[in-house]
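Appendix B: complex inputs.
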Amino acid sequence: MSGHTQEEIRHHVSIYLRVFGALLILTVLTVGVSYLHLPLHAAIAVALIIATVKASLVAAFFMHLAGEKKIILAVLLLAAFFFVFLLTYPSLHAL
Amino acid sequence: MESLIKHISKPHPVTGVTNAKLGTWCFLASEIMLFGALFSSYVLLRVGAGTAWPRGSDILNVPLATLNTLVLITSSVTMVMACASLALKNLGKYRLYMGATILLAFVFLVVKSFEYGHKFEHHHFPSTSTFYAIYFTLTGLHGLHVIGGIVVNTYLLFPGSALWKKDPDQFMGRVEAAGLYWHFVDLVWIFLFPVLYLL
Amino acid sequence: MSKNAVNGHGPAAAHDSHGSHGHDLPFWQKYIFSQDHKIIGMQYGLTALLFLLFGFGLVMLMRWQFAYPGQPVPFIGGLFSDDTMPGGVMLPEFFYQLGAMHGTIMVFLGIVPLAVGAFGNYVVPLQIGAPDMAFPKLNMMSYWLYFIGGCVMLASFFIPGGTAQSGWTSYPPLSVIAGQGQTFWLIGMAFLINSSLLGSVNFIVTIIQLRADGMTFNRLPFFVWAQFVTAFLLLLAFPPLMGAAVLQLMDRLAHTSFFMPSGLVVNDQVVAGSGGGNPVLWQHLFWFLAHPEVYVLILPAMGIVGEIIACNTRKTLYGYKALVDSVIFIGFMSFIVWAHHMFLTGMGTKMSAFFQVTTMIISIPSVIILTALVLSLWGGSIRFNTPMLFAVAFLPMFGIGGLTGLPLGLNASDIHLHDTNYVIGHFHYVVAPGTIFALFAGIYHWFPKMTGRKMSEVLGKIHFTFSLIFMNGVFMPMFIQGMAGVLRRMYDPTQYAHAVPTQPLSVFSSVSAWCLGLAQIPFIFNFFYSIFFGKKVEENPWHATTLEWTAPTPPPHGNFAVAPQVYRGPYEYSTPNHKNDFWPQSMRETN
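Resulting structure:
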């Protein structure tokens, strides 16, 4: 955050508060949907989509990943790529 | 000797980042792989159990966990406000927001201890089933990370804040790094909560 | 800020105390809890060499049982307790302890700390023209976490029931029901994993951020590229093993069933616990680390060999770009081949096909690297000093190791070869006359920079000759035994009739191993003797081009009195129309 003007920082703060609001709403939403007792696959999909949106907001705005330097994004992309293999392949063992 | 090492306070002209920022993101990349392994285990065990896997909401306390989710999200906001306060050169506001972050983290742990205590009272332990095993392990490891965050943030609130006078850029970098870590802890919970409690 | 002399004094006053201006640090802060990458590198080096010796000792003892199953060990058999070797005859439990800890110690306490912690720490900041690593305190912590982890591993030898005995791979359910030693193994691994993690962050940030002016990525020595990729492997591959270790600790201590299947019966008793777990889950998480781990073992070695070949052929390395692209590609691919260690675990055909394909693909960059290094010799003005002998021998040895891996990477042939001595032969060729030879080469090569003296060439050549002969003596017969169906990790393989005809090969391997042990004596003597009495040499005795040779010997704290400015690539040897046959990277004018 160094190198920004006072004006820019106050603008960031207003973004933080709006993201906060969105996160609160999405949390209420995800809990509310769970009470609908959707079939399992739909429930998983909805829950993960909402979680991904929330996580993206935190990552993009609180962690300043939106507009972050390329080197950081490259390291994360690498980790994300291997994360997918780690998450899925063990369960596909018998495929 | 530290003065010989460059890009501690000011970013590298080509990469555009300080050493601490790059280092923190590398560390977070490794944490993605750590929790990835545990989530992978969850997927494998649940797929293997088929219909025998219980519904999280039947076993776990959703209202308490929802409260905890809101607590952690709020603590992320106070953390980012702490960073913004430093950028606005307001040490007093920084202390307020950082203190609030630490307090909220303690609230999270207290709520968690109620959850765990309730489970133990009813003789539900990690050994009871693979559901409980992965629940306690995932939330336990996350909880240890919360404790780690409390330690770091408390250091930055009290003794560590002396650096603000000597090198405000370096101190702000440290708080930003701690913030990145703290948001990551929040991020993990954002996935943990629905996966364990709602599905 | 870039061209600062150390603490404002003139270049000649570059001193070796840390931190405060002109004060000398107390002994314990300067040499024990040092934050200087060179001291830390030497700490790693000495500790790792001791562990390598100890780990080798374990297998020299084990080799008696391989050669003469059930016979009392001569001379030293009586020194062991009745819990381990009653009447000098090794108990199966002790045999498996030796095996598990030999593997664990050699890989995690020996080779990686030496290749990365010692060579990486010492050489990388110097070669990129940096004053130290990016995070000196973190560097110090990395060493001490390694030290503690090593102590925990060693301590496990002395607890009741002995140390870990479920292989270095610790497969459940066996590892979960095993004695206390396995818990020590898991805790020790936790320390080692975190040590590596912190170290890898340091390497990545240092190489990206602290290169001297003019040191672009394409002017980096190949050794630095190798360490850079290695650091990413450690960063991203170790955490899953940390997770797995936590799960296994939970299974052992909290009686969870992450890896324990339902209805398991051991010694006619049903194992208590909820069941519902899956032993293959451990294998996936373990090998997700352990496959990149083997590239952690080989990449720094390739880097060292590259440096030494360029220097001793007085020629630039052939195919620098191909070498760099290949290490990057190997690093990337190494994450998606792991299940070739698991072909016999009931894997489906699609998964098996995927991993066979990726495994075959990853052999391509390995061959490119080997070929480029071999081609680098062509037309060179070769100096056959000791480091060069080890570096050149690395090439065919790694070639054998790599080629013998191919039938293991293909499912059909692996069905026959899996868990036989063939596997042992394969991976030892890559690691022993492969990596360890490269590490020896590195020690002989960089010894003059660390100490200002050269090691004896006579002793070095004796060390080399006999090591080469006996390495092959130990491991070549194992391919034959493996193809004959002799199983690995067997207390007495001759209980199976098909293993009896190749038993004389076990004797041959064991005798070779003991002779290999003897062959290290000239090296150990040479190493310590030369520190005090070796021939004194100047700053750049090999006339090498990379930046570490422009620093004083030994380099002071902060390394360079004035931060170097880099003008050219790393291997400007025998440049046409140049007075000397080498042109250091930071030298401005023609010399």
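Helices of chain A lie at 6-34, 40-62, 70-88.
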